[in-house]
Every structure is written in structure tokens, then in C-alpha cells.
TrEMBL record:
Ranges where the Solute-binding protein family 3/N-terminal domain occurs: 50-273
SUPFAM superfamilies: Periplasmic binding protein-like II
InterPro entries per UniProt: Solute-binding_3/MltF_N (IPR001638), SsuA/THI5 (IPR015168)
Signal peptide: 1-25
Domain of life: Bacteria
Species annotation: Arthrobacter sulfonylureivorans
Record protein name field: ABC transporter substrate-binding protein
PROSITE patterns: PROKAR_LIPOPROTEIN
Keyword Signal set for record: yes
Amino acid sequence: MERESVKKIRAAVALAAVLALTACGGGSPSGGGGETAPAGGGEASGGMTKINVGVIPIVDVAPIYLGKEEGFFEEEGLDLELTLAQGGAAIIPAITSGQMDFGFSNVTSLVIARSKGLDMKMVANGVATTGDRDKDFAAVMVKPDSGIKDIPDLVGKRIGVNTLNNISDSTIREAVEQSGGDSSNLNFVEMPFPDMPAALANDQVDAIAAVEPFATIVAGDGAVPVFSNYAYPVKDLTVAAYFTSDKNAQEKPEVTEAFVRAMKKSLAFADENPDKVREILPTYTKLDPATIEKLTLPKFPQEVNADSIQEIADISLKNGLIEEIPDMKALLPQQ
């Protein structure tokens, strides 16, 4: 059991984590720069409704780029503009202010945001684990001679995570606990994803919680996976979702419903066409073709797994990221 003081410290910095991290990664792990978001939700030419969606240039958002290319949003009367947010720090406040209509975030950040009184609401699925703890788009990676062979071996070790008090460290803690280890004796070190390969190579940390493309990059340097903290301990985890504000969803129900329909088409297309996912990545990331070919792609289900998000909320409460579980019915999309 963690001491109460530790939990209070984590809760105090949790809201800062929301604003600093609104997708699976802080920074731009796949490259690409930020752009200033224009005002969202306007009438475009030809009777189309212009919408602005905040995304981060990572593998996870490939479906929305494919949906735009395939014309799924146009079919729904939407003129889609995608704004790259450097690190994602502007997405939640941009939606609150009306600069953006929708955004992309990991589910832990959205649970924290809702618990802090921010009226963020998931409207569509974003990305999900493959469900295979040995082959997923996120993995805890170590050097082959580290002596870390299984989850309990992480106890007492230094583990690099892209941000503290969020989805990576809380799921790793839960996995260690469920595997019989002492989850309070884990030393998490915050660092951007791009710094993780060097930190592991130089023994600054014993393990890193990497996502693609960094899991593939460090594997190329000889690192090996211990397990995927997205595939375990939570079953069929919805890792991230597209969201808006309650106000936007209520004031623009037809636009929101059209966005959801277009996203479902986009997610289905991406899940059925992994080659198309790989082909679209160079259009908004700086990944090289050799790395793209080796990537482990996530799953893109059309629906969020509500049970998995409830488990994330429970884990967040247990680890002191939130003081109370928010109204999950208000947070989750209508399905």
C-alpha cells in the first residue's frame, strides 16, 4: 500500500499531466511540427461544415488521415482540417476555447480531465491494443543482459516513461502488482519518447515504456520486450479516443454524429487495410520506410471498450491520479 502523502503528491500534479499530455505521447514521437489551430466549427464552401481536429503526428492517428484521403468525412458533409499539436499540450484548452472541435487523447488523460471538472467527452474510438502482451505497439523494453526477464523483475528498477502519473506508469504498477511484485518499489523516470533509446543504451534507466516507432528502433539496437503494458493488465484496452466538450456535443449534435460516422468508417478501413496505414504514415510523420515496414500496428476497433476504460479509472484512483472516479456515463461515448 502506498503512503497517503505519495498519493496526494500524484494527485496534485495530475491536472498538469492532462495539459501536458493529451495523446499517447508527450512530444512528437513520429516527427512533425505544431501548427496554430484556426477557429473550429464553421461553414465551408459548397455547404460543407468545416471542422478542426487536433492530432499528434504518431502512428495512432493514421485512420483519420486515411478517412480524409478516402473521402469518408466529405461523404458526411464535413470539411476536415487536421491540426498537428506539438506534444498535444494545446488540444484540451483549444477545444474548451472553441479553437478546435475534436481532439485525440489517451484515455487516462481524459479520465483525469473529467475528474478535475473539465467537461471532456469521448465521442469515437482512437486506437486499441493488439491484446498480445508479447507483440503490441507499446512495450516495456530492456537490454538483453539486464536480468529482467518477466514483470516482477522490474521491481526496484529505473523505468523510463514519457510522463509521470499517466497511462504508462499506472498500468505498469498494476501489472507488477497483479504479477505478485511490490508495485510501490518502482522508480519511474520521466523523459520524452525520443530520448528513451539513448537513455537505455547509456544505462540511465534499466527499462523503457516505449511505443512505436521507438519499440522497433530499440529492438533494432538489440533491446528485447518484457511485456506490453497496454495489453496487460487491462484486457482489450482502448488506449486513446477522439473527444470534444459537452458544450460542443450538445450545441452541434448533427456535426458530432457526422464526425462519429466518418471516424467509424475510417477506423474500419484502417483495421482492414494495414498496408494503407503504412502508406499514409510518411504523409504526416518523418518515419523512414524501413522502420515503417517493421512497425507493430495497433488495432483500430470502431467502438471503445467501456469496461477497459472503467478499469483505467479504477487504476487511476488506486494510484492517486484522481481523487474520485468521474461520471463515466458522461465521459464515455453513446454507443
